[in-house]
């Protein structure tokens, strides 16, 4: 915990988690691990997911409607795909407790402010958030308490946000294992477009290209996939709904980064075509240095098995 939040109590009486998949489930586990709430109420659309969440034990009660789950909650965390945030916010609006903190974990932030903002009642503190931690898995069985340990959680409070509420939410995420940082939503979306969204889109594209070649390479793609290709297939197996929603809701920043990427790819194509060995060598030397600085900064947490329970390591 940083000094500035050291004196803030990270605990809540009642937390509501809306959406009980990888992130909602991991949050439930982290709350239980840190004893951060007296009661965790959960909402999922399917009876099967609700039953499973209760059975695993990362929620204390599972509700058939989001409206029911948020009643009396001091902290409400919406953990659904980004495209569902607006409808969920509209449903829960009349049931939110005055003084409660309302937040989310969505991978984009401008669209979250746009979609949830209109449904925040007077007296409720809306502070968008994004834990930069995840895996390619989804659903209630995929969550685990250690997911957020040592990873960043970015909060994007609006200009008029209540300082005490922001400090409380920051203390909560720190108690869940995260390091907390603050950004403007627009800046967040630009940064995440390059460090998270573009890598996933490249992975989806490479695996799609290989799949199109199946008549030629079907057996080879499977047989020799122990190397670089296998790393791409992990990212490319991430949840289709989640990534569709990210693309649709961070369109401008993603198109900007895809444009730059395409230009750089063309430059690389040119170097290969004209045998520019020096250009290629210089580029590869520069990118190798980026990897080294990530490791030196202690951020080498993107390795495929980072943060997973032994059962999840494949
Ligand atoms: N997976 C990651 O790596 C990761 C990391 C950080 C943030 N996020 C963000 O967290 C959120 C949840 O992602 P996840 O990985 O936990 O997904 P998930 O698929 O594991 O879980 C999503 C949950 O939301 C529910 N849901 C889906 N559509 C809904 C709807 N229309 N109304 C109500 N509930 C609905 C699902 O049933 C499920 O319970 C997303 O906004 C995503 O952008 C994901
Ligand atoms: O490690 C992974 O599998 C992830 O995709 C996690 C990852 C990322 O790109 O780093 C994906 C999306 C989120 O919004 C945050 C984290």
TrEMBL record:
Keywords, comma-separated and alphabetical: Amino-acid biosynthesis, Aromatic amino acid biosynthesis, NAD, Oxidoreductase, Tyrosine biosynthesis
Catalytic activities: prephenate + NAD(+) = 3-(4-hydroxyphenyl)pyruvate + CO2 + NADH
One BP annotation, GO: tyrosine biosynthetic process
Keyword Oxidoreductase: yes
GO molecular function, one term: prephenate dehydrogenase (NADP+) activity
Its EC number(s): 1.3.1.12
Family: Belongs to the prephenate/arogenate dehydrogenase family.
UniProt name for this protein: prephenate dehydrogenase
Species annotation: Parvibaculum sedimenti
């Amino acid at each position: 915990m940083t000094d500035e939040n050291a004196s803030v109590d990270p605990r809540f009486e009642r937390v509501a988690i809306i959406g009980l998949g990888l992130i909602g489930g991991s949050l439930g586990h982290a709350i239980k691990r840190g004893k951060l709430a007296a009661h965790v109420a959960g909402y999922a659309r399917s009876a099967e997911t609700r039953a499973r969440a209760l059975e695993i034990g990362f929620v204390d009660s599972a509700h058939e409607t989001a409206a029911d789950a948020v009643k009396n909650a001091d902290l409400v965390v919406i953990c659904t795909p980004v495209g569902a945030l607006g409808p969920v916010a509209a449903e829960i609006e009349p049931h939110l407790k005055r003084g409660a903190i309302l937040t989310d974990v969505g991978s984009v932030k401008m669209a979250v402010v746009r979609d949830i903002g209109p449904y925040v009642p007077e007296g409720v503190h809306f502070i968008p958030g994004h834990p930069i931690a995840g895996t390619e898995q989804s659903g209630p069985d995929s969550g685990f308490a250690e997911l957020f340990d040592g990873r960043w959680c970015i909060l994007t409070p609006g200009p008029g946000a209540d300082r005490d509420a922001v400090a409380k939410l920051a203390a909560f995420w720190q108690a869940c294992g995260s390091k907390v940082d603050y950004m403007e939503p627009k800046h967040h979306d630009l940064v995440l477009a390059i460090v998270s969204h573009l890598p996933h889109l490249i992975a989806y594209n490479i695996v799609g290209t290989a799949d199109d070649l199946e008549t030629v390479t079907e057996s080879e793609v499977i047989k020799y996939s122990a190397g670089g290709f296998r790393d791409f297939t992990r990212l490319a197996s991430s949840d289709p709904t989640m990534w569709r929603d990210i693309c649709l809701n961070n369109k401008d920043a993603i198109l900007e980064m895809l444009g730059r990427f395409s230009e750089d790819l063309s430059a690389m194509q040119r170097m290969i075509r004209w045998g520019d060995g020096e250009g290629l060598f210089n580029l590869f030397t520069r990118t190798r240095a980026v990897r080294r600085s990530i490791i030196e900064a202690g951020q080498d947490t993107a390795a495929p098995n980072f943060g997973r329970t032994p059962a999840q390591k494949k």
